[in-house]
Amino acid sequence: MKKQNIICYKKGLRHGIPIALGYLAVSFTLGIAAKNAGMTALQATATSLLVNASAGQYAGFTVIASQGSYLEMAVMIVVANARYLLMSCSLSQKLSSEFPFFHRFLIGFDVTDEIFGVSMAFPGKLNPFYTYGVITVAAPGWALGTCLGVLCGTVLPAMIVSALSVGLYGMFLAIIIPPARKSKIIAGLVVFSMFASFLFARIPIFHTLSSGVRIIILTVVISGVAAIVFPIPDNANS
């Protein structure tokens, strides 16, 4: 079992490299936001090491910049990061029962959109050491990008800083395209999810909600309907 854990960890390290590069670019703009909020490079870097959540950190820095209360901070962070609750629940079902319970807490510390995506794409039951490998490379990339954003973010032209965030969308495509090519059902759900997200951002009833809340609503509804209409046999993930 230990040998298998090492193999999975090394595999996670390799798969974490493109995520780290994407994080390095995207968190650069986060560092600029931290600097505008009056934070030092050390404070911003520590924040990214302890809270690896782009939307949540942006929301937190916004509250700090506006000198908001701790209550405002707590409510803002909960709303912005609520979707991670769904990701954690999904990952808990993916984890192999052979591993002790504390592995769920360790993985739960750094459940991000990208790490969740590659972990769910792991064939069969998830070996937590694979996710540890991804986190080992990805988390420092996020913190380093934040640090660089504070130190030299204002030096670069605004167009270059804006362009840095495009790389992360390419990484998302790399995560969803392989399973979509294998399954017409998944491909259809991906297209429908994108269309539904577009509509939700413009429908008067929903467009005032935060992006995190909209993601939760769409995830619960679409995944729930898909699970009922297109159930996966229990032996498919074994």
Topology, number of strands = 0
User: Approximately what portion of the residues adopt beta-strand conformation?
Assistant: under 5%
The helix-strand sequence is HHHHHHHHHHHH
Model regions low in confidence, pLDDT < 50 over at least 5 residues: none
Distance between the termini: 17 Å
Query: How many helices in DSSP terms?
Result: 12
**How does the helix and strand content classify structurally?**
mainly alpha
Report what the structure shows.
This protein is mainly α. 76% of the residues lie in helices and 0% in strands. It has twelve helices and no strands. α1 runs parallel beside α3, α5 packs parallel to α7 and α10 packs antiparallel against α11. The model has no long low-confidence stretch (mean pLDDT 82).
